[in-house]
Amino acid sequence: MRTVGIDEAGYGPLVGPLVCAAVEFDGAPEEFERTLERWTLEVADSKALYSGPDTLWRLESVTLSMLDPVPRRVGELLEALVGPCERPFYLDPDRPLPIHRRTRIERPPARIRTRVGLRTAAAFNAAHRRLPTKAEIAWELVAAHIVRVASEDGPLAVLVDRQGGRRFYAGHLLRALGTMVNSVRENAEQSVYRLPRREGAVEIRFITRGDGRFRAVGLASVAAKYVREVFIDALNRWLGERELHDGRLNGYGAQRRLARRLAELLQKNHGVDAGAFLRRV
């Protein structure tokens, strides 16, 4: 049996990528939980581990420790986790890793395979032209992971952090997988679906606050958040080198107005298409 945890980072801001990670383990969910309990590094919801650049090492230690070989540059990290992907104007693939001086490499007790899908601002805007909402853009990334892992034989448990208020996923799974799924449970706590097949049943669970309840989902949350923060670190270095912004820009909350002003400035004075910097939502 295989267990897969899936979570995203960067759903709400106007800058930086939307990232969705999947972590995969050979074993049942309960075994995956016990394995992660034995890891010397802390695994939890990324929001509990990360509170700004000074704590990046917590995310970085976990994510880099899952990769073999450990990437030494940003380009190597993206090649290992994402594969070929768009690289925005501000990203330096030769930026050395690790970024934080406190990062340490501690191998997990068992092999954990990690894959990441992402949408840069430009890719997000392109997707938004064919999809009605950002929820559908995020779902597209989640669905890609589900389709990939479900294409392999054998029993499979997929644990997904439920995003927003969506409770009913059967129609979305039908369109993604091309086959009917059985709805087992759809309530405020979780939505559970089964895909019976000769090669081994597939169970897919969308769990409210799954990143805080299951370490497998929390681990995916950490990987997704770390990859996003690598992009945010690169963006702020690029802006700082050109004395365009003194501080840390992440595009959340009160920074949304600032992000829009910077987009106008970049397009007017630096020839950077605003759509390559700012999500148009």
Brief sketch in words of this structure:
With 281 residues, this protein is an alpha/beta fold. Helices cover 40% and strands 17% of the residues.
Q: What does this 3D model show about the protein?
A:
The protein has 281 residues and is α/β, with parallel strands linked by helices. Helices cover 40% and strands 17% of the residues. It has a seven-stranded mixed sheet. It is globular, with a radius of gyration of 19 Å. The model has no long low-confidence stretch (mean pLDDT 95).
N- and C-termini, Cα separation: 40 Å
Binned strand content:
15-25%
Q: Which strands sit side by side, in order, in the main sheet?
A: 3-2-1-4-7-6-5
State the helicity in percent bands.
Answer: 25-40%
**Overall strand count:** 7
Largest sheet: 7 strands, mixed
Question: Which stretches are poorly predicted, pLDDT < 50 over at least 5 residues?
Answer: none
Which H/E pattern describes the elements? Answer: EEHHHHEHHEHEEEHHH
Globally, the shape reads: globular
Rg: 19 Å
Average predicted local confidence, pLDDT: 95
List the helices and strands and how they pair.
Elements (H helix, E strand, L loop, with lengths): L1 E8 L8 E9 L2 H10 L7 H4 L6 H10 L8 H8 L31 E7 L1 H8 L5 H17 L5 E6 L8 H8 L4 E5 L3 E6 L6 E6 L2 H4 L1 H27 L13 H16 L11
Parallel strand pairs: 1-4, 4-7
Antiparallel strand pairs: 1-2, 2-3, 5-6, 6-7
Helix pairs in contact: 3-9, 6-7
Structure keywords:
single chain, 281 residues, alpha/beta, 7-stranded mixed β-sheet, 40% helix, 17% strand
